[in-house]
Structure formats: C-alpha cells, structure tokens
Specification:
Blueprint lengths: L2 H12 L28 H5 L7 E9 L5 E6 L15 E4 L2 H14 L9 H4 L13 H5 L15 H6 L7 H9 L16 H14 L3 H10 L24 E5 L5 E5 L14 E3 L1 H12 L34 E5 L2 E10 L2 E8 L5 E8 L9 H10 L5
Length: 387
Amino acid sequence: MRKSTRTLLAAALALGVAAGPALTPAFAAPQPAAAAQASAPDLSAVIAGLPRADATAALVRVGGTEGSWRGSAGVHDLETNAPADPAARFRAGSVTKVFTAATVLQLAAEGRIDLDRPARAYLPDLIPGRYARVTVRQLLNHTHGIPAAGVPGGTVEEWYANRFAVHTPQELVRSATAQPREFRPGTRQHYLNIGYTIAGLIVERVTGDSYEHQVERRILQPLGLRDTYFPGGAPEITGPYNHGYQTMRLDDGTTGLRDVSVWGTTDGWAAGDLVSTTADLERFTRVLFAGGVVRGPLLEEMFTLPEVPDFTSGAPAAYSVGLSMKRLGGREVWGKTGGRWGYNAAVASTRHGERTLVYSVNSTDAKGQDMNPTALRLMVAAYGLPD
C-alpha cells in the first residue's frame, strides 16, 4: 500500500471510525454489484497467517442488509499456540464511550439530564469555576476544552510497572480541571477521555446509582449482552479470552512480546474499561443504529458533527456524541475504535445498517501512533478508501 494511502487510512482510524474498500466474495451473502470492488482483499486472507509481528489474533464480524461474514484467526496464547477462541471476551477500550453516550441520551430523554446545562450544575463540588460554561453536550462531543488528566508514566514500560494502580474518576477529574483550559468551550474539538469520565459521574449524580449498573439496566440487560461487563478494579478478564501481548523492553534488556492480558483499567472507567465480545458488540451496533437504544430526535445527536475545527489539525470536527464519521467508499461510515494494551477493537456501520463491522485485534502495539496493520487491512476489506 502506498505510504500516502496508509497515512490517510491511519488518520481515519485516529478519528475513531472504521475505514477501508468494500467486501469481496468472502462476504457470505450475495451483495449488489455496485457494492463489490475487484481490488478489495478477501477478509479471510486479511487475517490468514496470524499470529504476525503486529497481531496475535483477530475476531471479525461483518453484518447488515448487504450480507454477513464471520472469521477468526491467530492463537489463544503464544505458549500453547491453541487456536484463537472466536467467542472470547476482550477489552473494548473507547468503544465504551458509545455505551456512555447512549446512557446519557436516555437520561436526557427522561428529562433528568439537560444536554445544554453546564456540567458544573450537576457536579458543583467537582467542576471548578474556570469550567463553569462547559455543557453536557460539549463533554460528549469533545468540545469542552478540559485537558487530559495526568497519569504517571511516559513509556509503556513505566505504565506496565504501574498497571495495577487504581484511579478514581474523581481523582482524574480533579487532575484535569486543575489545569488551564485548552480552548474556550464550543470552539474546538479535542478527543480525550476526560469528558466521558465527567459524564459517568453525572449519570451517578442524577440517578443516585452507579454508572455501571445504569448501563447494565438500560443497555446490557435489555439487549441480552451477557458477555459484556465492567471489570471495575479487577485487572483480569473474567471468562474465556485470547491473550493480549505488547512489544516492550523485557527484564533481560531485550525487546520482545510481554503478556499484558492482566492490566487494570480504572484510568478508563466510563471512557474505556468495557469488556465485551464481537457477538455482543454486533448486536449492540445493529440495535443502536436502528433506533432501539436511543430513540427519537436524541438519536440524531450521535449523527451530528459540531461545526468546529479539530484542536490539533484544524480539520473539520469528526466526532459526534459517542461516535465519529468518515466518508469511506463513497458513503458515510459511523463508528468507534478502542485500544487497551494488547487489544484493539472497533464497531462501525453505515447510517442505516447496510453494512456493520465489529472486530477485536490482539495488537502488539495497541496504543501506538500508527494504526495496527491487521486492523487497517480489515477496514480496507469492509469499507472503501476515504473519499
């Protein structure tokens, strides 16, 4: 693939949405001729040959009215080399934000949260006066201007050494809001976790219940997502999972793969600590886009981009409430990616569910600067190149 194409696709993924050319005959059900592209790689070919240097396993589901395909490849772990479990649980990372956004929008529909009300009105004891004008909607579409919370460490080795550290959401919010704002609220967009951490605390304040239980009651239980859960302070993944590995400096001074499956995620919380499966995320995506999770006008919040520039690049904003959008293969694709050490995940769909994509890739550099090559090729096989 040409470097310019890789750069473009990597930028698309940085925006949190799936990118790539349309499906080929690996797509199990017939598809319209206009949807097929001769140059598109076969999905099974994309994941064949795992484990590779960039990924040790991949679980993939493509669905929608245009057909469906499922596949898995790679290994359960590098010790036994047993085949990857296609039903395994994995860390979904920032895909959590879609669940958080949907929960807040449900509460807005009930009149318990006002998207245009300042966050400080709900959390006056936690949000200082310098952020008094930040609204709930701005928390969710990343236009709030609050900087990232400070988490100790600057390298993967340092973060690994602190992998069992426990962070409370209140601690993270205080760390972030103690800093000067990055920009005036509503004038820029900067994708960060902190807005969703605050949103999770607002859910707790207005319901008098835990954030986790609210998501379970409103989304996980009604949709029958039995393999999706919040780990809380537990660093282990409960139930079957394929091991995740990260390239880093090892104890003997060499660079190699370390098993990072056991790693605390309290720094993510409502922004990134969900554990799920491809089957559960596929069902959630299908029902969400069909209007079965968030209903009526509030669903459009998830498909409305703020008209502001990106804080870093100056490009048009690409994030809505919970999702992001990129034009791929001539049409809009909405979705969300997520990354935790050892695991990359994504959900994506065309607006009306013609084609959905869910994947988990056990990436060996899941939080690197560039997009994982296996994940990129999956995107290319499921959707078209960025317009």
